[in-house]
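re: ur question from earlier - yeah i can do the single chain one, its not a big deal. heres the input i used so u can compare w yours
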Amino acid sequence: MTKCKPFKGCLQPCVVNGLKLHFIFDTGASNVALSLSEALFMLKNGYLNETDLKGSSYSQIANGEIVENTTVILKELEVGGIKLYNIEAVIIHELTAPLLLGQSAIQELGKIQLDGDELIIMNSTSNNNSCTEAKKNVEQAKVYYYENLYHLSSESYKLAYDYCPEALDCFSIYSLGNSYRNIDNFILATKYLEVAKDCTDDKEFLYWIHHNLGKSYFELDDLEKASLNFEKALYYAPNDEARSFCNRDLGWVCEKKGDYSKVIEYLEKGAEYFINSESIRKKDIYSGKVNNSVLSEDYWNISVYYSKLNNQVKSDYYMKLSALCGNQEAKEFCRKYNLNYKSL
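and the output i got, formated as tokens:
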């Protein structure tokens, strides 16, 4: 149990990313709030960096006015001897705005109680005990993760992360995010995968992080972030198979945007990378010796989008390639429209 004094309306010393600041506890504020002057100081002196800034947001202040803020992630916030991690905060665009410790931090403290002017944090067991239990949860989460029991792995990893983030290495944080992705909780998937990308410089690992971040943002219809992460995954891709995945994914982002020319460009690149990864010879494709479902689907999709652009010559060409690679729908299409796919 930890006691912090004083509480609401009075200043409380906190440490934000290593910088000592005094906040006003405000249970009515939804977020931790920084003034513009503190934020500029922190950026200038390395307590914040540009990657911590997450874009614009809006909030309603006490007088009812709607004001613009900048959302920021505080990697570490210490209050009453308890360390909180990756806390969402807002930068108020006023130099003299008060520093508020709002609900985005208070709710992470666990069960709290007011005793006069004291804040009593009920759940603050020793860090050592918390981290010991968290490590046990991580080990159990790993078992669930490798057995594809993603609901269970996400619960165990999250429990460990809440009690002691230091108990999770970078791969465990990635697994936490990817567990949420596999159970279609894409909001939490992006939250933890964003944390994971900042804790490693291993290129192949960064490929997987950005690839799954791209998939999560794609499901959330955030096409700009999806595209950005697929491009980064492509940059870190360790082999041609990975490059083929990234190009296909970039193609589907363009499909959602309605840019069919770009869809074709990415799908054609994806097919070429796949051919290279499988050491497939073009002459074997043309002679019908390659029966491959992935390649036949690529060619089918390219044909469809050439058709959407009214380029029937190219559409027919790729439809024949799809048939040659074993796609039954493509074969039926060719028979129906008298396309001789056995001679290209």
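Confidence is low (pLDDT under 50) at residues 1-10. not sure if urs matches, ping me
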